[in-house]
Each structure stands twice: as structure tokens, then as C-alpha cells.
Task: structure prediction
Amino acid sequence: MNPKFRHCAMASLALALAAQISTATAAGPVALTHIHGLSYSADGKQIAIPSHHGLALYADGKWSKGAGPEHDYMGYSATRDAIYSSGHPVPGSGLPNPFGLIRSRDGGKTWDKLGLEGESDFHVLATSYGTNAVYVLNHQPNSRMKTAGLYFTLSDGMKWEQAAARGLPAKTGGLAVHPADPKQVAAATDEGLFLSRDSGSSFAPLVKGRRVLAATFDLDGKHLWFTGYDGTPTLARVGLQAGAKPESIPLPAMKKDAVAYIAQNPVRPDEMAIATFNRSVYLSTDRGRQWRQIASEGVGGQ
Result:
């Protein structure tokens, strides 16, 4: 079955909530019009957030602008070796629009074209941290994907395979890929958290009865972290075995907000970062027991 996918629910909510905020730092102004992702560098020293105007970086207690081009990065996801993204080039660059699939091996300073430029903009894209597998939700046919649906590549876009996605709800807003096993892919949906163990051929619910906004595997591959909103924002993690019970993770106080992205430090795994729809960012050094705010509605702080 090839379900009809809609644009990410998180993206539409972010469009309603976000407004441009500029904040001065030692490296110049950092504009976070939206937050389109969240990742740590492989050495664990830096957090990167893609937006409409390039990457915003956080390191040593300060925010700065990334050294690369100020493209509109969408569908952003990082692995141990590279960053993968989609989106649109900065006006005046002369580059094809949209990007299709692009990759950076130097933290976003330069980007390689991996195909489908001028054809597709993948808002929902996820990678396997240790294997570089890439999964996308494709919303319309292109030269390498005959229909809409769930696709994956194990060859940096040289070959794409369509997944049958049996059992996957149509209202799917986010994906996550296991860090070591590219056959395991999770989906955040309006009907719960779903998991496939066969490269997306079939999905089964891992957590049912709640709307899931975002999900990510922890880097040891033993749990899925996921977010939601049930009148208040929620964060939880759950084991991958059938029948596992979710464990709630406390969140800092938030007003009319929810968690849009989760990232784990690959060097210090007890350190987690979360970013919200209202462009606030928090850090925890004890896997979510306590949080420290480092940005509030797009304005950086310590």
C-alpha cells in the first residue's frame, strides 16, 4: 500500500508560531526564522540548528552563524560522517531550486548534490547515524520516484527504493532511523509511534493512542525518544521490544509550546538537547532530569 502522506504537522505548526528574531553575538546577528532540525557535531562540542537563513551554531556558551551559505535547509538530519538536507538555495546563488538531496561533510560549509535538484524538497527526512541510510517522505513523483510514498537510499541517492509502508498511518509527520540497523525506521504519526524492522515494508504501533510530533533513536539503539502534546508538552522514551511501557521525561515549563526536535551528544550520551516550535532550546546533562535554557523564542542565552 502506498499511503498519501501530508506535509509534516510540525512544519505547519512552526509556520504559525515562528517569527523572525535576530540576536547579536560575537560572530554577528543570528536569525532563527524557523527551526528545521537539531544536531550535535561528531565531536560533541557544537549544536547546529538549520533555519531559513543557514545554520545557527551553539558552542562554548555562545551562539554564532555557521560559515556556510545561508540556504533554507529543510529535512535536515546528521550522521557520524555528514549532514543531509533538502530545501532551497539562498536567493541570487544561481543554484537549482529546490535542492533535492544534498550532503555536507564539513559541518555545512560546503554541500554536495546527491540528485533530484530542481525536482523535490523533502521536508521529512531522516538518517541512520552510523550507516548513512537516508529515508524520506516523497509527496509527488520525480525522475527517480514514480509515486508519492516512503523511500530510502543506502547509496547517497544513487539508487532509491520505495517501501510498501503497510500499516503506516497516512498522517505521518516525522521519521527516525536506527543508528546501527538501517532496516529499523520509526514514524511519528497522529495515531502514535510506529516502528518498522524491515526497511519500511511494514509498520506496527509501538505506542498507541496519542499524537506523536517527533521521534529519535538514542545512539545506543536501545530506546526511542518521542514528543507530543496533550494540553501540555510531553517527552518520553520507550524500549523497542513489543509491549514496552513508555517512560515520561520531565520537561521545563513551556507556554503554548511543544518539543519539535531531540538530539543526543555522541561523545557525552547523558547530554540531550531539545528545540521547540517557538524556537526555544534546552540542554540537559542528565538525560532529561534537569534542563537549562540556552535560547528563548529565538533569542540566545546561557
